[in-house]
Write a structure and sequence with these properties.
4-stranded mixed sheet; about 150 residues; alpha+beta
Length: about 150
């Protein structure tokens, strides 16, 4: 089971985790990303390319399902305007054993950061700027190249 959602609605962690637990897994691993208020960030806006972004997330989930023995993958990403403390992304993996669930979850968040077409704009007070890709994100994604 692969579930991908891109929406402006808040992420309901309990609902997402429960759906993965229903897969009969012995392990469910999750990652939740939260908007940080670093350096005075007052708002974060995410835009995406509908259709293309969902396709990229599904492709990542399919690779994870093939590479690890997974019973389920959930990828939920917010778009629109968010404030510090809001959940921005949820990644969940279900497997019979913890190693597969944990590794697949790490793979998915590392690759999502570089492979999914999202555009991020940070607002600090009255000033807003588009955020460039980070080298550290590329490094984290690169460690999985042998997997792909």
């Amino acid at each position: 089971m692969i579930r991908v959602s891109i929406d402006d609605a808040p992420i309901e962690l309990g609902v997402e985790v429960a759906a993965l637990e229903e897969r009969g897994a012995g392990a469910v691993a999750t990652f939740t990303g939260v908007v940080r208020g670093d350096d005075g960030v007052t708002a974060l806006e995410l835009e995406h390319y509908p259709g293309m972004t969902e396709g990229a997330l599904i492709a990542l989930a399919e690779v994870a399902m093939q590479r690890w023995s997974l019973l389920g993958v959930t990828m939920v990403h917010r778009v629109g305007v968010m404030v510090p403390g809001d959940r921005i992304v949820f990644i969940g993996t279900a497997a019979e054993h913890r190693r597969e669930a944990l590794e697949a979850c790490a793979y998915l968040i590392d690759r999502l950061k570089t492979d999914a077409p999202f555009w991020k704009r940070e607002t600090r007070g009255e000033a807003a700027r588009w955020v460039e890709a980070r080298g550290s994100d590329a490094d984290a994604a690169g460690r999985w190249n042998a997997v792909d």
